[in-house]
Every structure is written in structure tokens, then in C-alpha cells.
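May I ask you for just one protein sequence along with its C-alpha cells in two labelled lines?

_____
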Amino acid sequence: MGLTYKNAGVDIDAGKSLVDLIAPLARATHRPEVLSNPGGFGGLFSLLNHRYDEPVLVAGTDGVGTKLSLAKRLDDHSTIGIDLVAMCANDVLVQGAEPLFFLDYFATGALSIAQAKSVIEGIAQGCKLAGASLIGGETAEMPGMYAPGDYDLAGFCVGIVERGKLVDGSRIHEGDLILGLSSSGLHSNGYSLVHKILQTSGTSLDERLGEQALGTLLLAPTVIYVKVVSQLLAALEVHGLCHVTGGGLVENVPRVIPNGLLARIDTRTWERAEIFDWLQQAGPIEGDEMLRVFNCGIGMLVVVSRDQADEGLALCKQAGQPAQVIGEIGRSDSEEKLQLT
């Protein structure tokens, strides 16, 4: 008998079984604009019913990074898909765009149907939270490229916005206030440093930190801010948005601040979750490094005029999203765009 693909480590039948299992999950996320395409090689999404004078499509792609290693250690893959959607959808959102559809890429050494299904269930849940349709994806089985049980993820999100309503920071002006929307924890950044801390400190993921285990706190999924920010965009004149991802406040805030202006942020205006204090002490990590690596409790910034800040906070409260004024926009006489107290 000759060699087969299965002899080489690729199980075509398992891949087909997975497709059959996840098809209902994807269909449950579909918006009316999704077109049926049985057996197609690409997802179809109609823009015919979108009434825009100058529609602009906004695309974003990202992964989850070494947080995947934590999911493997804890053997809990149920929320990592939410992280994947969040990292892409939040990036599209900060341009003022409504996420429309999402695609994923799942690569592994040997396909575990149970593991992959758990991941993709999380992706489908994330798509529902983002209001985006899961219209396609790819599962790649690559023996020899990944160790047993290992996998990697990438996601791709496309949104739409009226050109005149693009949020690019150009409307930010002196005197604006900065609203900080709380994070759920580390989100999906800084985990290479987290793994190093766990290794050097010898701390068990089962160790209790308050009422929860350390591992549970570290695996908390990234907040998808689409619902609350969409409400803010509809009700207020939002001057700027910033998704606090890799690089923390230090690297991300200056990306949205126009030349000649300065974001003054007071880190004493919000209470950091205990997980950040634990990381800083267990490292130990200097305060400046914490702000360069982690979101430190703030996952999204919204810049609005001073007279709309209270309304913005009220909308956040109604949506169940903790938020507070964390700073203001001032004039800068140098190239500096961020000042952290």
C-alpha cells in the first residue's frame, strides 16, 4: 500500500469533520449582507444596502501572541478566539468604522477537533460581540512546523465608515478631555514578559490572587469595545480614539495626537486591577516599563470636547463599561505628544 497524507501527519477526514462542526457557528454570526456561497473559495458580503456617500473600507489583521501558550498550559481554549476578534475589531473601530465581517486562520501541527472547535466557538462569540459576520477561515495542519498541541491564530476584520466621519485624530484640539475605558486585564499584550515572570518567580497558575486563580486572571479575554464606542460615535462628536495594545499607553497614544498637541494623562485617576500590581512586584518591573508593555487597566481612549465628557461617561455607564476622565489635551512646544503623571 502506498503512502497517504495521513501517514505524513495530515488527517483530511478530521479537517472535514471540523468544517461540518463549525459551519453552524459561523452561520449564527451572519448579518443580512452575507451571501450564500456553498462550496465557495471566498466569503461573499454585499454592500448594496449600505447608504454611504463616500464609503471607506477599513481593514485590520492581528493575532493573539504568546497568550496562546497560557491557554495551552491551562488547557482552556474557550476564550482565546474572543481575543483574536477583539484585537482586530477594536483596531478597525478606532477609525470610526463599523466591523462588517471577519475571517480567521488556524494553524496546528496535528488537528485536535475538540481543541479547534473550542477556539472557533470563541471566535464566533467574539464576532457576535463585535457585530461582525464570520464569513470564512482556513485550518492548516502542518506536522513538523508546530509541536503537539500547539497552534497559532491570525484574524482579519473589515469595517466600513463614511469618509467624512473617519476618526483620525485631526479633530483633536486643546482643551479636549480624554476618557479612559477600563480593560478586563492584560488583554493580549505583554505575555512574553508574563511567561518570563512566571518562570523566574516559580509561581503556580493556581495561586490565588484575591478571589480568582492567577491563571484565570491572566486568561481573561480582551474587551470588545464595539457596542459602547458605536454608541459614543452616534451620540457625540468623537475627536479621537486609541486602542491600547502592544506598547501600552506610551507607544499607542502618540499615534493619534496631532503635531503641536500633548495628551496629559494622570495614571492616578483610575485604580489598577490587582493583576498589574502582582506583575510589577513579581518581576520586579519598573513603573515606566509597565506603561510601555501593559495597558495597566485602560484598554481604549476616547477624546471628546470638554462639554461632552459627562454625556460620554453616562453612556459608558449605561452600557456597563467602566470609564473615567483620565486626562486632557494641551499645547506642546516640542515633539512630545504624551505626558504621564
Summary: The first strand starts at residue 34 and ends at 35. The mean pLDDT is 94. Residues 198 and 218 are 11 Å apart (CA to CA). The radius of gyration is 21 Å.
